[in-house]
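TL;DR need structure tokens for one chain.
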Amino acid sequence: MKLAAIDIGSNAARLQISTILHNDGIVSFKRVEYVRFPLRLGHDVFNFGELTAESEARTTKLMQVYKLLMELHEVEDYMACATSAMRESANGQDVARRIEAATGIRIHIIDGQKEAELINNVVVQALDDRQFLHIDVGGGSTELNLYKNRQKVNSKSFKIGSVRLLEGKEIKGGWRKMEDWVEDNVDPSEEIIAVGTGGNISKLFNLASKIDDSSTTVTEIERIRDYIAGFSQEDRINKLRLNADRADVIVPAASIYISVMKWAGANQIIVPDLGLKDGIIQLVYSHLSRKKRG
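>> reply
TL;DR here they are.
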């Protein structure tokens, strides 16, 4: 059985198709297809307050492509979720309805709390009993989630993201509010480890020197950020071989991770290969399993 997730963010839209595996009563998910396309919806929304006709047309075409891929893979069920850009867009709901009418793909515009919940459902599997601060940086928002003993004890969504910073559209006082939240919620008497999710931290982690297979240090992330910042946009693409839509947002994204880690006193960051799309697939599987049980 194959299931799919579509994640429509402020910078890019992703399709992931996974096969469901059953082994001695244990269910696991194996990725068989992954496609990412840079729609840059956040550029419209953070500058003009709504999605343009051009962006709507491109998103509609992309959903048609994703639908065909799901049909070719014989996907049994799927869910499409849109996050910060579409939920803040004045015409987001109208655009979603028109895309569904044109393609048959229903887009669920989810709030920051639901977004964090879906990511947390898969990230928690990578944690142990220590204190962890999960940082998920998207194009339009950053979700922070605090864990102790594998239990989420607090969370907050902030309107600070890589595309929003790139466009100079961060909310006034946003950085201060995020720093205050970290200081109010993280216990300084306990060790704190950061957990990073999102495309930018995954790329930074790939470029960094590692502590082990899944972790590195804030110092190393800062070194990589400063190294990339020393190149022009053109050289980031041609010399560092970054995708054009990654080359401009990776530095502001890195600054968010670094700032949060320093506020929290976290010297180490774990970067699991997990994200919203994995949480969506897990949710689709849960819904489908309940439906089949009657």
